[in-house]
Amino acid sequence: MKRHITATIDGEAREFLCDEDQTLLDALRDVLFKTGTKEGCGTGDCGACSVTVDGRLVCACLVLAAEVEGARVETVEGIAQEGELHPLQRRFLEQAALQCGICTPGFLVAAKSLLEKNPDPSEKEVRFWLAGNLCRCTGYDKIIRSVLDAAADLRGESG
Amino acid sequence: MQYVMATTVEEAVALLTEGGVDAFPLAGGTDLLAQMRVGRIKPARVIDLKKIPELREIVEAEGEYQIGAAVSGAELGEHVGLRARWPGVVEAMELIGSTQIQGRASLGGNLCNASPAADSVPALIAAGAVCSLVGPEGRREIAVEEIITGPGRTCLARNEIVAHVRLPRPKPGSGDAYLRLIPRSEMDIAVVGAGVALTLDPDGTCTACRVALGAVAPTPLAVPEAAAALVGRRLDEAALAELEAAARAAARPIDDMRGTIVYRVRVAGVLAKRAAIIAAQRAGE
To answer: pTM of the prediction?
Structure first.
């Protein structure tokens, strides 16, 4: 039997039908066609499917769609506002903090969640916060630098 | 599969009982959903426990803390009072998985998954935690070290769930600590874990101590012999060396890809000693 879910997704009130064993990740991608959120491992190890549910960073592959009834879900697709890229997205592009791009949505969502909690993180804090986001292309340094620079942008401290 | 929500512990137990052998409780889901994904578990029904207030709250009463079994690592870490009172328990829970896992993984889930290497469990044993279980026969209380009986096995009866974990009110001059060794700095499973909780009187003599080890036996272990090495003494080199020797003697690990028997035994002693030193520093703060 399908389950009817009402939730706020990327700021929009949405209603959809899901299977009761369907993960939030599969519902986002296959029901709502929000394919910005990627599947890497499907078992919570890689962070590619990172989203926030009621402000809490989680792996969408480890949440059932049925659990988000009434919740506020934010994905990578809600990060740019009115066609304007978020400083994190701009810095990732400028500094080539991605190659294949599969991990990128998860890194952006996770990094945004960090900067909302801690606007001025140290490099170590960024590395620990993002330890659950795996990237097999970049070697991480460009990602970490982009997050630190975007943090400075958001604090209005960039030259 | 059917997804149902319970709003009371008793309702959850009834839904589990009615669901039969293929019904599973769902707290954080970081073990259950991963196992469903790889086909190891095929539930006919999952019962979401996260709408049950008792399982979601951290309640303090006269210095005693009651932590709901479905409280996540992130929620535990954000609780200022608990962090101040039981830093070892909080740091143990916070070592589990990534930021994303912390957003979901629960204290009760870490306990009931019953891994020999579960990080929160040695810290809970050291803290003297007591679990409140609810099942078809009603409610009972049991010391946390009795819960895990083997790898992936618990003493819980069929359709019984952990409702909350209670940490006793610490005496003045108490501190606790948990340390684990992994070969990298994040995102790994303990090679060895060690939890210590102790109380020092004003002149530095240890009046009470509990020591527990993880990943060195089929279950997390309470090690009263190691605790006895400190009680009635100041934490000088001789006392700490005895604690270290007792921790090594209690360790009976396996060889696996994470570490050899010889290495784990050695590290069990080292970590128990270091955790005792940190717990003593915290006791003095």
So the answer is: 0.97
Answer yes or no: do B180 and B163 share one domain.
no
- CA–CA separation, A56 and B100 (whole Å): 8
Please indicate, yes or no, whether residues B191 and B150 belong to a single structural domain of this protein. no
Whether the Cβ atoms of residue A105 and residue A50 lie closer than 8 Å to each other: yes
Domain co-membership, B27 together with B86: yes
Residues B34 and B96 in one domain: yes
> What pLDDT shows up at residue A158?
78
ipTM for the assembly: 0.97
Bridge partners, residue B2, by sequence: B45
CATH superfamily, region A87-154? [2Fe-2S]-binding domain (1.10.150.120)
Q: What is the pLDDT of residue B107?
A: 98
Run of H or E residues at B82: helix B80-85
Domain boundaries defined on chain A: 2-78, 87-154
Q: Which of B2, B38, B100 sits opposite A57 (nearest CB)?
A: B100
b/e map of B189-216 (b: 16 or more CB within 10 Å)?
Answer: bbbbbbbbbbbbeeeeebebbbbbbbbb
Domain tally for chain B? 2
User: Which of residues B112, B132, B167 is at a domain's end?
Assistant: B167
Average confidence (pLDDT) per 10 residues, chain B, 285 residues: 97 97 97 96 97 98 97 98 97 97 98 97 98 98 98 97 97 97 90 98 97 98 98 98 98 95 98 98 93
Q: What is the pLDDT of residue B186?
A: 85
- Residues of chain A whose C-beta is under 8 A from some C-beta in B? 1, 3, 19-21, 23, 42-44, 47, 50, 53, 56-59, 61-64, 66-67, 110, 113-114, 128-133
